[in-house]
Automatic annotation (TrEMBL):
It is found in: Mitochondrion. Residues 381-428 form a coiled coil. The lineage of its organism: Eukaryota, Metazoa, Spiralia, Lophotrochozoa, Mollusca. This is MRPS27. It comes from the Eukaryota. It comes from Mytilus coruscus (Sea mussel). GO terms for cellular component: mitochondrion.
Amino acid sequence: MSTLCRLCAHVKQFSRPICASKDVCRTLLSGAYRCHDAWMNRLQSPILSKVAFNEFILDVYNKFEKGKGNILDLDILANKIENVHDKEVEFMDRILQQFRETPDGSQVSRSIIHGIVRGYIDSNLTDSLLPMIKDKITYGLHLDFLSANILMDHFIKKEMYHEASQVAYDMMLQEDFSNQVTYLLSLYSTTKLLYHPIEQESPNQEAEEGEEEEEEWEAVKVIDYPFYDDHFSIQSERFLHGKTLYMLGKKLGGVDGRSLQLVGLGMYDKFPQALKLLQDWMSVSDGTIVVQDVVTRFDELLQKALTRDSEEPEKDFGLLRIEDEIHKLKLTQTEKEHCIKDWQGIKERLQSENKISSDDLETNISDYVNSEISQYEQSDITELKSLIESWETRRQNWLDQQMKDFIKQQKMDEIQEKIIELEEKEELLSYYTYENEIKLAGLRAPIPHKEPKKKKVLDEDEIEERKLADQKKRKIKKK
């Protein structure tokens, strides 16, 4: 079982709010950010106002099962999500999977994603939403910054920093922290998770459990070479967390930014890269470089880092798995010893030159995010209101086009029926016009020659059987 799977098993148990009072929990974003009034007003549109979710989802499900569903059906459904039951969650899951197999499913539109995110939040279904967001191939839910911000803020309000960080990881994999609110929320949630982690197994326990797992063999026609790109292929949540902190720290800069980069690279097992960065920082900076807490954390990560045997034999091609490719990226024991030696020298120099800050990184990041985030809200609010209007216009355009296509198809069907009817009438009229010629042609047509049936030649056994049968019949008649 991978690290990520084991961590997910602990989410419900260890993702409860840390605060004891609801009054302490707060969102970083103002109530205006969600544009609640504009979002609810869209329900008054002629299209959405006539739809009841609990009935419509069955219709859409049946349409997609028959291969007749389209993007308009899913868009209306996503924007009417409310009072969802367990069975309807299964229907929604199946509908999204089937939509991905349609021509329109290559890229799920922003209005559908936004509707699903907000609908699942309002229905307390975020535990079902996160796995869907992670599985891009099956569901195709690529969060934009507005839906990501609303979802992260929802988790932060409940102090569910692990879940909020999952959204930050998703934005990291998209390599898009261009939106300042997304960046600040990601920075806040991943830093909080660093200081308030969920319970997880140690690397040694993970390795031991991995050895006990039974292998399952499966016959395949082609053996694919396992490819690990160190980005989309990352399976370890610790690596995802570390790489996200590293990217966020690069954008932040300063002592706090450098501290996040250092601890991020340590969690990501990129120790040589981290030591190289430290040396570069020390050569260009006269002030403090990193905070003390990060120095301690990096030291622990380096000491506990797992290594590989440099002389271990190469596995056969058919036995290679992606875990083997990940294993190759680990330090050898010799490389680890060199890193520890270099780290000790750098650490002593940091201490002797007073380049280690005693600041609290968690407090610094919290204060920074709280002081900065409000100034970037208004531009997002304006954009979201504009998007809600444009989505409604596009939805109406889709419906109008669908009606035009329906009317066009009806007319084409009517024309086709008329053509068939005229052809039948023409054929009937033509018969009476050419009746004599048709009869004459029938008389002139050659009579097909029938070959005489060949008599079956009986062998001696069959002749003997028939004689015996005739004798029996004669005896019966005499009696």
